[in-house]
Amino acid sequence: MNERPFRFLQPLRDLLRAVSLDERRCILCHIPFSPLDRGAMPPESVPRIGIPLCPSCRTLLRPRKSGYCPLCGEPALQPEARPAPCDACRKTSPPWEHFRFYGLYGGALKTLILRGKFGADPAVLHLLGRLLAHACADLPRPDAIVPVPLHRTRLRERGFNQCQEVARPLAHALGAPLRPDLLLRQHPTRHQVGLSEAERLANLEGAFLASPQVRGKRILLVDDTATTGTTLRRAAIALLDPHGGAAAVDVAVVARTPRDNQDYSDALAASCGLAAEKSRS
Ligand SMILES: [Zn+2]
Ligand SMILES: [Zn+2]
Question: Which sequence ranges are marked TM in the entry (predicted)?
Answer without folding.
Answer: none
